[in-house]
Specification:
The longest helix is centred in the middle third of the chain and has 14 residues, at 83-96. The strands form three sheets. The protein has an eight-stranded mixed beta sheet with strand order 5-4-1-6-9-10-11-12, with helices on both faces. 28% of the residues lie in helices and 28% in strands. Strand 9 (148-155), helix 5 (159-169) and strand 10 (174-179) form a beta-alpha-beta unit. Helix 2 (44-55) crosses helix 6. By secondary structure, it is α/β, with parallel strands linked by helices. The structure holds ligand PMT. Ligand PMT is lined by residues 25, 41-45, 83, 102-106, 108, 133, 135-137, 151-154, 166, 178, 180, 186-188.
Length: 232
């Protein structure tokens, strides 16, 4: 079944599967050796996508920020900590892959400096100067040759409008918009509800459902696009 699928869907790797790159989890941006800025991403959505893609027979490389999940079977995992490390890990893999799922909740900013020793409490207030992190997805989308680029958008308001703006601004082919304002759905938890949107105007809501089912739905919808020439 997996090989029949790969033939139907376009590009094939040496082993017959589609080459798939997934990022997952948060990034950590350290202030000193023991303190960092991060977010609540658990990695569950990205790991579920990696697992379901491997079950389809795709070759899967998973680049993950710090999470406590066990790697899915038949998936090669690369563990990173910061956004800068994530970019360094994904860039060479992007050239190899046929499809990128950028599920990671990458920090947009990092402290301008990381203290070499644990910071001491000296004042009542502490100001931290932050600098922009690279936008990994936007950077990769600009480098693409044949890759299908799928991003995610975690929004707490104006879900589809904000996601549609990111789809265009970052040069994606697809975006998975998820509402993180509702209890029990989105970040950190087991279930999700999404709207899958494409650059050609497709709009498909799905869920609420366990992240494994959401992952299977996304793969089912986007697989026909893998291997097609880049949009631009
Ligand atoms: O890990 P879980 O607990 O299962 O939660 C899953 C999730 C809610 C984190 C996931 O479904 C999700 O929405 N991931 C994207 C979260 C996010 O960072 O969204 P964003 O709107 O800030 O970013 C838009 C896209 O740009 C994302 O694909 C993101 O990976 C990418 N990005 C963002 C910032 C940055 N510096 N570089 C990026 O590549």
């Amino acid at each position: 079944m997996a090989s029949a699928f790969a033939v139907r869907s376009g590009r094939k790797s040496a082993s017959g599967g589609i080459r798939c790159l997934v990022t997952a989890g948060p990034t950590r941006e350290y202030l000193d050796p023991v303190r960092f800025l991060s977010n609540a991403s658990s990695g569950k959505m990205g790991f579920a996508l990696a697992e379901k893609a491997a079950i389809l027979g795709w070759e899967v490389e998973l680049v993950s920020g710090p999470v406590s999940l066990r790697p899915p079977r038949n998936v090669r995992i690369h563990r990173v900590v910061s956004a800068v490390e994530m970019l360094a890990a994904v860039e060479p893999l992007f050239r190899w892959c046929d499809i990128l799922f950028m599920v990671a909740a990458v920090a947009d900013y990092r402290p301008a400096e990381c203290a070499s020793e644990k910071m001491k409490k000296s004042k009542d207030r502490l100001s931290v100067k932050m600098v922009r992190n690279p936008d990994i997805l936007k950077h990769l989308a600009a480098l693409r040759t044949h890759q299908t680029v799928v991003g995610f958008a975690a929004e707490s308001q104006h879900l589809e409008d904000y996601a549609a703006e990111k789809l265009v601004r970052k040069g994606m082919d697809w975006i998975v918009a998820n509402d993180i304002s509702r209890p029990g759905l989105g970040m950190e938890v087991d279930d999700n509800e999404i709207v899958l949107m494409s650059s050609s105007g497709v709009r498909m809501p799905f869920g609420p459902a366990p992240k494994e089912e959401v992952a299977a739905f996304i793969l089912e919808q986007v697989r026909g696009a893998v291997g097609r020439p880049a949009r631009k």
